[in-house]
Amino acid sequence: MKKITIVDVAKRAGVSMKSVSRVVNDETNVRATLRDRVNIAIEELGYKPSFAARALAAGRSFVIGVLFDNPSPHYTMKIQDGIYAACKSAGYQLVIEHVSANRDEVAADIDRILINGRLDGLILTPPITDCEPALCAIEAHNIRYVRISPGAFPARSSSVSTNDEAAVDDMVNHLWDLGHRKFGLVNGPAMHAAAHWRRNGFLSALAKRGIEPAEVQEAAGEFTFQSGILAGLDLLKRDKVPTAIFATNDDMASGVFAASAQLGVHIPNQLSVTGFDDSWIAESVWPSLTTIHQPIAEMAAAAAGMLIAGRGGSSDPIMIHQACRFVLRQSTGPANG
Q1: Residue 105 backbone class (left: φ over 0; alpha: ψ -120 to 50; beta: rest)
Q2: For tag attachment on the chain, is the N or C end more exposed, with fewer CB atoms within 10 Å?
Q3: How are beta strands 244-247 and 272-274 bridged, if at all?
Q4: What's the pLDDT score for residue 29?
């Protein structure tokens, strides 16, 4: 079967090969009628542009990278889904790299990733998004990057964030209306800004209702299921047992479910549990988890969209904010005790 080439597309569309190249490379200032003719010809012939040739002609790689160091599989998966969808629709490829924000060699890791110059831009996820050595290494390569949910250096780059702290207020209002006055809190990793925002939102919302932060039972967590079990066991074995526990992500909330089962504590009759993220696990546990939906995939797609559109460079950073929302399910009930 004869391979379809750019020459065939140009002949079918009745235009020059240069015009086809401009459309394929998504150049600006291309007339809509010309773009339509070329795209129709491409679809009719089933033409697949050479990725290497396209990159060479456009002077860019059409490759976007994303850096991860997050223990939550749901978060990582949703980030990838959002970026991949944006890349696929624009004809870009996605490269996924794991970088440890705790490693002393993080700058060297960044250099290794960027040394060949294959990437048009980078998307950084927490906690790398706030890792100063990583940011310095990226900037040394003069490559555009967008950060997701940064907690530090807000004007340093373009970013996409959510209203984590404010979103918690709706959840606290729900628990308060159910009569809860004894609360437990499972915190996230210290280096994740979102963990601090969610903790602050929870404590501030309770303080407005007359519960001082010192009255809230707190336990450490690491955004993992296992850490949620340990935190849940800790909280439920204390002298002042909470009637409602807020875990700052769904993975840890599911761990609290496991701890409750071990101790024979019934959810929601004896204990209400809430989480954050609205991950797949929120509807997999029973009773299903009351939580806060974070638009993770949408945030990732927005970050990729900025890079693809060539917007939001270091001289003109763009900050996009997307809203979380409270999701009521079956893991919360009236206070009992």
Answers
A1: alpha
A2: N
A3: parallel
A4: 76
| Eight-class DSSP state of 159 | E
Q: Which of 293, 299, 297, 243 is nearest to 273 (CA)?
A: 243
Residue 258 identity? A
pTM of the model: 0.80
Predicted local confidence at residue 100, as pLDDT = 86
How far apart, in Å, are the Cα atoms of 289 and each of 133, 136, 266? 38, 40, 14
Q: What tokens were used for 252?
A: 């840890």
d(CA 37, CA 275): 51
Sketch out the chain's domains with CATH numbers. 6-58 (1.10.260.40), 63-162+296-320 (3.40.50.2300), 164-295 (3.40.50.2300)
**Residue 276 CB: number of other CB atoms within 10 A?**
32
CA neighbor of 169 nearest in space, from 323, 6, 3, 15: 323
Nearest-5° Cα angle at 88, 69 to 40: 175
Only one residue has tokens 């407005």, namely: 208
Question: What is the model's pLDDT at position 154?
Answer: 86
User: How confident is residue 42, by pLDDT bands cut at 50, 70 and 90?
Assistant: confident
Number of H helices, E strands in the chain: 12, 12
Cis, peptide link before residue 287, omega less than 30° from 0: yes
Question: Is the torsion defined by CA of 198, 203, 208, 211 positive or negative?
Answer: positive
Cβ of 282: how many Cβ atoms within 10 Å? 24
| Mean pLDDT in residue range 204-225 | 96
Residue 227 has pLDDT above 70, yes or no: yes
* Residue 148: strand, helix, or coil: strand
